[in-house]
Amino acid sequence: MTSSSESRPRLRANHEPRRARRAWPPAERLSAGLAALGVAVASYLTIVHYRSDLLVCKAGDCASVQKSPYAEIAGIPIALLGLAMYLAVLALGAVRWRRPAACELATMTAFSLVLSGTLYAGYLTYVELWVIDAICQWCVISAALTVGLLVSEGSIVARLLRDE
Q1: Which residue ranges make up each domain of the chain?
Q2: Residue 96's closest CA among 157, 55, 10?
Q3: How far apart are CA 129 and CA 49, in angstroms?
């Protein structure tokens, strides 16, 4: 025989029952890790956009890429747009984990953002190679992180579609 206190859900200090969280699948952990690395790279690139004396480049010609007209859109540094994308993917991952009911919408939104980011990174890589004729190691790292996010988020979308 169980007591009445054992049959009730455990209560938090504010007397709300605990909500069950979804497990954190490997692809979602990978996305969070890649997005966190992307935040670090894009933050650094945003800072050096305004403080070029802080630029460290061991491979390529980062300064030429950073000073090119392609480094901004309407006065906004491309790195800042990348930072916004990486932060949004992190936030959407948190929503996906904490709010299972919003998982599908958060996943599709993250995938759409990362697909757009990958296409734009491809365009910027083309510009680096064929227009500016210089490569930025940090831009290559960011592009690789974005492609990794596309693969990871794509696998999450595929899992969602299989589960329907």
Answers
A1: 25-163
A2: 157
A3: 20
pLDDT tens per residue across span 76-111:
999 999 999 999 999 999 999 899 899 999 999 999
**Cβ atoms of 137 and 60 closer than 8 Å:** yes
DSSP string, 138-161: HHHHHHHHHHHHHHHHHHHHHHHH
Give the integer Cα–Cα distance in Å for 42 and 120: 15
What class has domain 25-163? mainly alpha
- Rounded distance between C-alpha atoms, residue 160 and residue 41, angstroms: 30
**DSSP letters for 26-50:** HHHHHHHHHHHHHHHHHHHHHHHHH
Tell me which residue of 83, 85, 46 sits closest to 66, measured CA to CA. Answer: 46
